[in-house]
Specification:
With 494 residues, this protein is mainly beta. Helices cover 6% and strands 35% of the residues. The protein contains three helices and 29 strands. Strands 4, 6, 7, 9, 14, 15, 16, 18 and 23 form a nine-stranded antiparallel β-sheet that branches. A seven-stranded antiparallel β-sheet has the order 5-8-17-10-11-12-13, with no helix packed on it. Strand 12 and strand 13 form a beta hairpin. The N terminus and C terminus are likely disordered.
């Protein structure tokens, strides 16, 4: 396959208007530098003997009915999306709405989809849309909830449950179970440090004498054999993938690909072989780094602003206002394996900044892809985004509309944060999401409800601060603090 040093995209200059939740964007460029998309389905490793079998598999290619590899339909599903990262389609569970994908443990035909009552294992690829909070290379938020990867039964019922799940910070993997009498055990706990938008291989194996977890082809931890299990009546609830059935909110907030279940515990050699042979299909696409932001406080608060990665090539004067805005004259030039994309922002209104977003792979709907902010540009200006190394890049232009006035454009909230722009404080703690993003906080976490971090404030009848309590307690008085003529504190030292 040849890679020309320069590509012209005149055939793509006609923009297409995208409508989502009342916010208009323009889908501008679909730039394929190498014209390569890996669509192969990676085969599972065959068992070692005839008594060891693959129970079922989920490639998630059937996005209409979500049938299994053996053709079994789910019990129920809602608010699922598709990611095109990795080989073929991937299940994406990453929404502010309730979402789940539920299957039978036992089918009417007598087939077993997942074997939890005796020896078994489950192997799958996971693509988080978040980074671990322990990740020092990135500002991570984790999934924000105890995200379920696979769960049998329901954790809010007395019937018992069984689950492989993440902690809210994305720093640990747990394998736990509870029986019908309320007895609970945590079989496994393994620390993880994930980057956002990168594939990880998970393999969980269990027997009556041992449980083992592998991450990215390597042994992570092991624990005691299965002893506490949900009773048979709990299995009538089936099992869920990527979320919980009880609330539909304990989502993995990421994508899953090629889940396979076995009636025997996969061993270290099998896991390493899958990681080695299939890993090439999952490492081709990397995340696009977000550009540095220069927040603005005037004339309005904008948490994400500035040129970012956009470098000005030229500008023209005398452009009139236009209701629509689009990109035109796009080109890409390859230099040492990296692409410099050049384009012009046409239409739009004079003086208004327009956000440019990029993703290595589209999702369905558009907002479910993993988008990153590239910077802001203005009408009638030509820009270059330099040194993009992804084989595929998709660009979207966002308008300055901020429905709530929380310092984030609607486009940024929908594309990057995957949240409702009509709600200025997603967690309900009253702090605007724009300030949380500016300070590196997770908009989905209610900080006022975190006892290790919160400070509670009380005010007098005129709205002046009187007292704060929490981790650090202090009362405010004239004897300890200086006040101005209006009663405002002007020193922070008692």
């Amino acid at each position: 396959m040849t890679n020309p040093s320069s590509h012209s995209f005149s055939a793509l200059q006609r923009a297409r208007l995208i409508q989502s939740r009342g916010v208009a964007w323009i889908l501008i460029l679909i730039v394929s530098f190498f014209s390569l998309r890996l669509m192969a389905v990676v085969p599972v490793i065959p068992p070692g003997n005839t008594n060891e079998v693959v129970l079922d598999s989920w490639t998630f290619e059937d996005t209409n009915y979500w049938t299994t590899g053996l053709g079994y339909s789910p019990i129920s599903f809602t608010n699922l999306s598709v990611s095109f990262n990795g080989p073929g389609n991937s299940l994406l569970v990453d929404t502010t709405n309730t979402a789940w994908l539920q299957y039978n443990v036992f089918e009417m035909s007598g087939a077993t989809n997942i074997n939890i009552e005796s020896d078994g294992s489950a192997v799958f690829w996971f693509f988080p849309s978040w980074a671990s909070t322990s990740n020092t290379n990135k500002t991570g938020s984790g999934p924000g909830v105890a995200g379920r990867l696979i769960e049998v039964g329901t954790t809010n019922g007395a019937a018992g449950w069984w689950s492989l799940f993440l902690d809210s910070g994305g720093n640990n993997l747990y394998f736990s179970a509870q029986d019908g009498l309320g007895n609970f055990t945590n079989y496994l706990a393994a620390p993880i440090t994930f980057d956002s938008n990168s594939w990880h291989l998970m393999a969980l194996a269990w027997t009556s004498t041992n449980t083992t977890l592998y991450v990215d082809g390597a042994f992570a931890t092991n624990g005691p054999g299965l002893s506490v299990l949900p009773p048979a009546n709990a299995l009538t609830n089936g099992f869920t993938i990527g979320s919980d059935l009880a609330t539909g909110t304990l989502q993995m907030h990421g994508a899953m690909n090629n889940l396979t279940t076995y009636n025997y515990p996969v061993d270290a050699n099998t896991v390493e072989t899958i990681w080695t042979l299939a890993g090439v299909f999952y490492s081709a696409e990397g995340a696009i780094a977000q550009a540095p932001s220069t927040p603005e406080m005037s004339p309005a608060f904008n948490a994400i602003a500035g040129p970012g990665y956009l470098s000005v090539v030229s500008s023209n004067s005398g452009c009139g206002n236009n209701t629509n805005v689009w990109l035109t004259n796009p080109t890409s030039v390859m230099t040492n394996g990296a692409a410099n994309i050049t384009f012009t922002i046409a239409g739009g209104s004079n003086g208004l900044p327009y956000d440019v977003f990029a993703t290595p792979a589209l999702g369905q709907p558009l907002t479910n892809a993993t988008w990153t902010w590239m910077g802001q540009g203005y009408q009638c200006c030509t820009y270059t985004i330099p040194s993009l190394t992804n084989s595929d890049v998709f660009l979207v232009l966002g308008t300055p509309q901020d429905s709530f006035g929380n310092g984030l454009t609607d486009a940024y909230e929908l594309l990057v944060l995957h949240q409702n722009p009509a709600n200025g404080s997603q967690s309900g703690d009253g702090m605007l999401d724009g300030w949380k993003v500016l300070w590196g906080m997770n908009p989905l976490i209610n900080n006022a409800a975190q006892p290790s971090a919160r400070a509670n404030y009380t005010y007098d009848g005129t709205g002046r601060l009187e007292e704060n309590s929490g981790v650090s307690y202090s009362g405010f008085s004239q004897e300890l603090f200086g006040f101005d003529a209006e009663g405002n504190i002007f020193t922070d030292q008692p």
